[in-house]
């Protein structure tokens, strides 16, 4: 980090004061221990770089799960004025609308304990996972364009889940402004066979048990109770979204080199004015990828529910699966926020961060209006995950944003070296987690120590007041691509 100055604001917030080309300060959400971890890579330098971009508003933010990424840090949040600010593919990321979906059930842990291994096998055999794997839905180009325009609605109309799922999905599972003619031919080709697939890397499907409730009133509103079996999955827009990002990064880099409208501290921050032709084209293509991801998660969760019914031999009535919420990461959204007492239209980039609407916000569906938006924060395979709810302070300080997970503490290469010679699947089994995976290096790269302490991360979010803890989930089955 060199000589970068970091000033404590309180127990959970730290400031990078304006210096050099920075137009706004940087604000880091972390405790002292997490801050030391964060300082081990270049993530805070990236926070300062983002703070130098045109039209940036108020501050460049770092959530407690922040780590080094492409251009923008992962766990970074920044908002840009829609009139004179920019939009950047690096501020969204390659896996556009990578997100997490949580479903509640009527089942308790005792209902699956004797069938845990059988259920793990069935989920592994029926949920396509891994790099480049094909899914159960084969699309024509014409049908794919409908997916890109309509997102989760398209999947529900074809029998994957129910209409009530749309209410419990961010933006109803459909991002406005999508133009199916914007993504390039390679992106379209990659998307034809990957709908309904989990993917690889840190993507997963987990069966968990609610092992602690912190806020019983909000937990009831979210249909959660202690010892309950829940299903959580993490996936995104697959090769389609990756290609959209790659295509527009190249195009914006060429544009930047030609126009030279302003100096970039890092070429990975290639961008264009929000309202420019290039900016509008990227937004329209990004929205297509977002809709693809929502349809993908809708299909995946529906398939997981079918596996439960068949494996356990129970009826849908006894199973009682219902979507708690679907939150997205890796997005740039045009939203209204109050800044210095004035309402402004902003393009909010959340890269490895999630939306966190407070109670009373008009963007919340009616069942959650009095409680705040459900926020899903997955940890590693061995520890667990948190369900939280958005609070007023998020709207005031972070453009209604919170963290999206534990965040990596070790790079994939470092983690492989750290666990060399160990049998991670046996270690997880001793903790009561049945794991299934593909890829020779997957478990080595995704071992529990690869990630920060999820309880510390959740405590920072809770203690800072941007979200409140509702429940904790302990994993019992993990499916990794």
From TrEMBL:
Top enzyme class, one word, equals ligase
The subunit field of the Swiss-Prot or TrEMBL record says:
Monomer.
Swiss-Prot/TrEMBL GO biological process terms: RNA processing; RNA repair
Residues annotated as binding Mn(2+) 1: 95, 203
Give the cofactor note: Binds 2 manganese ions per subunit.
Instruction: Keywords in alphabetical order, please.
Output: GTP-binding, Ligase, Manganese, Metal-binding, Nucleotide-binding, RNA repair
Query: Residues in the active site?
Result: 404 (gmp-histidine intermediate)
Q: Does the keyword Metal-binding apply?
A: yes
Protein's UniProt name: tRNA-splicing ligase RtcB
**Which SUPFAM superfamilies does the record cross-reference, listed alphabetically?**
Hypothetical protein PH1602
Question: So where does Mn(2+) 2 get bound?
Answer: 234, 329
Please report the organism this UniProt entry assigns to the protein: uncultured Desulfobacteraceae bacterium
The protein's required cofactors = Mn(2+)
């Amino acid at each position: 980090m060199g000589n970068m100055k970091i000033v404590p604001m309180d127990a959970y917030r730290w400031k990078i004061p304006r210096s050099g080309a920075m137009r706004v300060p940087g604000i880091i959400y972390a405790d002292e221990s997490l801050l030391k971890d964060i300082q081990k890579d270049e993530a805070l330098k990236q926070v300062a770089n983002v703070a130098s971009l045109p039209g940036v508003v108020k501050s460049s933010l770092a959530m407690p799960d922040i780590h080094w990424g492409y251009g923008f840090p992962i766990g970074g949040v920044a908002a840009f004025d829609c009139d004179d600010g920019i939009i950047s593919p690096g501020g969204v990321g390659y896996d556009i609308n990578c997100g997490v979906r949580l479903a509640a059930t009527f089942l308790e842990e005792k209902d699956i304990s004797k069938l845990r291994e059988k259920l793990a096998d069935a989920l592994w055999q029926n949920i396509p996972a891994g790099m480049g794997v094909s899914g159960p839905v084969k699309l024509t180009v014409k049908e794919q364009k409908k997916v890109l325009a309509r997102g989760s609605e398209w999947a529900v109309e074809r029998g994957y889940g129910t209409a009530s799922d749309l209410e419990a999905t961010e933006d109803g599972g459909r991002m406005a402004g999508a133009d199916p003619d914007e993504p390039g031919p390679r992106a379209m080709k990659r998307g034809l066979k990957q709908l309904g697939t989990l993917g690889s890397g840190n993507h997963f499907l987990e069966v968990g048990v609610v092992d602690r409730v912190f806020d019983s009133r909000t937990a009831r509103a979210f249909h959660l109770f202690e010892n309950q079996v829940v299903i959580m999955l993490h996936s995104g827009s697959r090769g389609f979204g990756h290609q959209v990002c790659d295509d527009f990064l190249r195009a914006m880099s060429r544009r930047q080199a030609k126009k030279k409208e302003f100096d970039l501290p890092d070429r990975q921050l290639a961008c264009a004015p929000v309202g420019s032709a290039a900016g509008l084209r990227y937004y329209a293509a990004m929205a297509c990828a977002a809709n693809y991801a929502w349809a993908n998660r809708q299909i995946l969760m529906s398939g997981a529910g079918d596996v439960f019914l068949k494996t356990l031999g129970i009826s849908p009535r006894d199973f009682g699966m219902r979507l708690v919420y679907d939150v997205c990461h890796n997005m740039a959204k045009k939203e209204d926020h109050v800044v210095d007492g004035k309402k402004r239209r902003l393009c909010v980039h959340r890269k490895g961060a999630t939306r966190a609407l407070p109670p009373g916000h008009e963007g919340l569906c009616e069942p959650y209006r009095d409680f705040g938006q459900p926020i899903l924060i997955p940890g590693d395979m061995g520890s667990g995950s948190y369900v939280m709810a958005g609070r007023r302070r998020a709207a005031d300080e972070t453009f209604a944003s919170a963290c999206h997970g534990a965040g990596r503490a070790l790079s994939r290469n470092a983690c492989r070296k750290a666990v060399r010679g160990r049998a991670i699947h046996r270690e997880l089994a001793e903790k009561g987690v049945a794991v299934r995976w593909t890829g020779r290096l997957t478990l080595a790269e995704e071992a529990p120590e690869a990630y920060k302490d999820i309880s510390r991360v959740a405590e920072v979010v809770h203690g800072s007041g941007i979200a409140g803890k509702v429940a904790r989930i302990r994993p019992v089955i993990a499916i990794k691509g």
